[in-house]
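Treating backbone geometry as a discrete language has practical consequences that deserve illustration. The sequence in question and its structure tokens are set out directly beneath this paragraph.
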Amino acid sequence: MTYNKDKIVSLVIIILHLVGAIGSAIPATREIVTSLTPVNLLITAGLLIYTHRESYPKLAVFLPFSMITGFLIEVVGVATGFPFGEYAYGNTLGFQIMNVPLLIGVNWFILSYSFGMMTANLRINWLLKSILSATGMVLLDVFIEPIAIRFDYWHWALEQIPMSNYVGWFFVALFIQLVFHQLFKENLNKQSALTVGCQAFYFSFLQIFFKF
């Protein structure tokens, strides 16, 4: 039963990102597909929660912690330019509070949880796991940024991505990962690596597509 559930969820995650990538690349469907980005985020987060194994009280702690932390940091970032640099959100990610899409917290959960689970089984101490996970999140953001700007997720004041964005991302991600690896000592979700892989595919595919 568990195998079947994981297989079905894996298929759904793959289809979501594949349709998203192709639909976003085709001019005729680009607008409607990108407008469904919030739905994609909610479905992905829901599937990760659904396939989480055991330690549900710990998940009940980490879920709101990562979402609220990520959201509040973004509120500070938009208002002050710290720690990421001066930027503003567009309309693609949906409903906003204090000029920040509410769903940005969901995105912080998806990435933090997935990268955390990917490193949870490594035979290194929790600090190194946290550093490795945070580094992975920053590397993925390198692929995210150009597409996020193109699709009106957010925009940078100087129309270029500042290095402070990646530095800020690393330290915020590291803080969240330090908490994650104190809570979880093993990988409790088979979908974490697939989710990261599909997101990497989505953003890298679109980057390559728009360069040609």
Notes: The first helix runs from residue 2 to 25.
